[in-house]
Amino acid sequence: MKRIIKIICALALALTIALGCVACGGGSNGETQKTGLGYEVDRSKMFGICVLPSDFPTSSKDPGITTEIVCDLIQTMNIKSVRVWMHIPYVLERVGYTNELRLKESTVQVYHDYFAALDEASVENILVMSHQYLYPVEMIPQPTYNGVVPDPVTDPVAYQAFLDMFRNCYDMLAEEFPEITLWEPNNETDHPSGTTIVREGYVQGGGEANDPYLYSMTDVARITADLCYYANLGIKKHNPENELVMPGLVFSSTAASAIFIDLLYEQIESGELPFSEDADGNRVLPADTNTDNYFNVLNWHPYANVQPNDDWLQANIDMYNVAVEHGDGGKKLFLSEFGWYDSFDETRQNNIGLWYPEALDLLQENLPSLEAVYCFRMFNWTTTGEGVKDMEKTFGIFTSPVEESGITPKPAALSLFKYFNGDNADTSELYKYAADTAGGGSSEETPENP
């Protein structure tokens, strides 16, 4: 019977894809379309990027990347979707040693200014992501690690207090930032080494010593669903049109990619969520199996590392098919991180320039509710700190301002620019921040097949 159901779902997916391709033309034609269950997607917002200027709190970027440069290149490239790191502790804090929350006004203003600049640069989807928490004073983790979540089984009182503060944080954020309608309340919660949902005692870089502090994948799915539910309560309080984006899931080009998203749906459908207990252990909120009350947008990170192939494509289809099986066929989909590192290798850089358009074609043809792909990232990060993998240095589609060439487009930037703006689009403006702009900007500099 289960095999029959899967066959039916696969046929339904194929039909949805066919209808989606008829409606969307397999590309980003700027039309808003209804897919599957009537959800709307707008493929004019397909071109996305992950970027944050240098003067923002997070350290994962090189110096010299100003808001002006970022927004100028975004507008030149015709990028319509931007993912912004805005961790909760960057903009909120407790008042002294209490559980009262307040805004960090100076940092809040920095983000307001950035969002306004992105809007001025014609960005339409601003996706705000946080994977750090604030904790009630009675449960501040020791040793301090900002991915600890209390155990809902062994410490339900602390878990409920944590969820309540999490909801309050998103309530305050949504009220303070009405210009933001897309909220991603965690990132890669299903990472096999933990990082954003772990038990107290987990230590950054602890290796195998952290194993006792890792939750099972089923537990992580349960906690992820709870976090989404409570964040969704917060953002919907001030604007029912706000959308909760599923935390971007880890991806591999195998059938294993679909396991966690299936677990997530199973937890929601169990009738035991959201977690909601008073001090006596009595349920307060009713059980809720409506996935729209947990997330409004599907999301994963389909890194390929090599040229897109059949296994990679099938893994993406499998993940989407899980949503179809659980009644979410057609629900809007973001891919909030996607790209390749090049290790400063020229041959690989040229190949990546070829792979981006190939991958975008395949994704749009086979994922009918896909609205935006956020390329990771805009610039190289060459000044990574100790303990950060070297691969993190070269995901940029542009070089870094601290590199000898200054900010120059890699083949990836050139091919993406032409993919979204036409083969005859003039690339010269992409070189305006290069160390030596003489002779730069030839429209013939997109990669050719090797």
What can you tell me about this protein's structure?
With 450 residues, this protein is of the alpha/beta class. 35% of the residues lie in helices and 10% in strands. The strands form three sheets. An eight-stranded parallel β-sheet has the order 9-8-7-4-3-12-11-10, with helices on one face. Strands 1-2 form a two-stranded antiparallel ribbon. Helix 2 links the parallel strand 3 (47-50) and strand 4 (81-85). The longest helix is centred in the N-terminal third of the chain and has 23 residues, at 2-24. The protein is globular and about 65 Å long. The protein starts with a helix and ends in a 29-residue tail after the last helix. The model is unreliable at 1-29 and 438-446 (pLDDT under 50).
Jot down its keywords.
two-stranded antiparallel sheet, disordered N terminus, 450 residues, globular, alpha/beta
